Amino acid sequence: MRQRIRKGILAFSMLMFPLTFFLLSPYVIILSASTGVINGSAMVFGSLFLFSFLFSRIYCGWLCPGGAVQDMISGANKRNWNSKGKNVSKYIIWAVWFSLILLLWMKHLPLKGDFLFLYKFDGHYIMIYTIVMTIIYLFAISTGRRGMCHSLCWMAPFMVIGETVSDFLHIPRFRLKPKPDACVSCGKCTKECPMGLDISRMVKSGNTDSTECISCLACVDICPKHAIGFGISQKRSHSLEQETILRKKEN
Known about the structure:
Blueprint: H1 2-20, H2 28-33, E1 37-39, H3 40-55, H4 58-62, H5 65-73, H6 84-107, E2 112-114, H7 123-143, H8 147-151, H9 156-168, E3 173-178, H10 188-192, H11 199-205, H12 218-222, E4 228-233, H13 238-250
Parallel strand pairs: 1-2
Antiparallel strand pairs: 3-4
Helix pairs in contact: 1-5, 3-9, 5-7
Protein name: 4Fe-4S binding protein
Pfam families: Fer4_10, Fer4_5
Domain 4Fe-4S ferredoxin-type: 174-205, 209-233
């Protein structure tokens, strides 16, 4: 039931994407910054950063229209697109893009806020939307499951940095909670993960924290032994988790 609700929300988000694209655009924020304006997309990205302090990357798994498009396309290419090299590219792209935005803001101080700045549903808007949708489609169909999330997404780094700051400040946030003793290594969780993570191995190790996890809970719902829980909690050190597992085995 939970996954049907999640997929329904994603489907609605995808249908609304032509209207909400303006608030998620990596291009409009640059245009706005070049005139000293903090526009709607800048406010949304900032909100996602703060939101991730407590709720991690739930947005990616439950609300992101770009993710919904990729999930739909994954039926044509179920290849896993997940590795350190493939994942790091989005941070490089993000660093260059965000640095440009900061430079433009600094150049045009003082800044002013305008949530709907440049919002016009015209031919130019439709052209940009079409280009971005084409990139998402072609990249997803050629790479595999959520390939753009792994390699190109300009929003994911905001949330990953938010998660990192949250853990550094010892702020409890939403995360998976493994139960290694209950895991029977059936591999269903790994097969179900839309991000291509090796969930089974992560559960067995007692450490399910991953910057690529989008908190979709597909692994939780597919596990026949309920070996994966979830909730709000602080980050536990991997060594502590391993020590706990070894102590249980000794007993």
